[in-house]
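Bit of a strange request maybe. I'm writing a small parser for structure token strings and I need a real example to test against, not something I typed by hand. Could someone generate the tokens for this chain?
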Amino acid sequence: MKKDRIIPKFKDEDEERAFWATHSPLDYFDPREFKSASFPKLKPSVKSISIRLPEDMIAELKTLANKKDVPYQSLAKIYLARQISLERGSFRGAPRKNKKVNAQHVTGADS
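Reply from user aminoacidic:
Good idea to test on real output. This should exercise your parser:
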């Protein structure tokens, strides 16, 4: 720690957050004193899987990804996440327009 700078005691995380938003950690810590850290048991948050898809579906996905300028595997993850959210009823995308449903269509009644 640098001699002229002492980190104050904070009442809570909000106060600490506000402090670090306006102060540089380099004024309080000497980078030459930093030590490397190793986390050998840290597990990655993603897992690779193998999924079989029709070639035409992959080609279409690659075309869409190219138009959006993103990797096709990333686009596939976006689509999967969106569909999972829809299935859970928690999708927060663009608001859907309310469509009035014809009661005869729902009940199967004929006029």
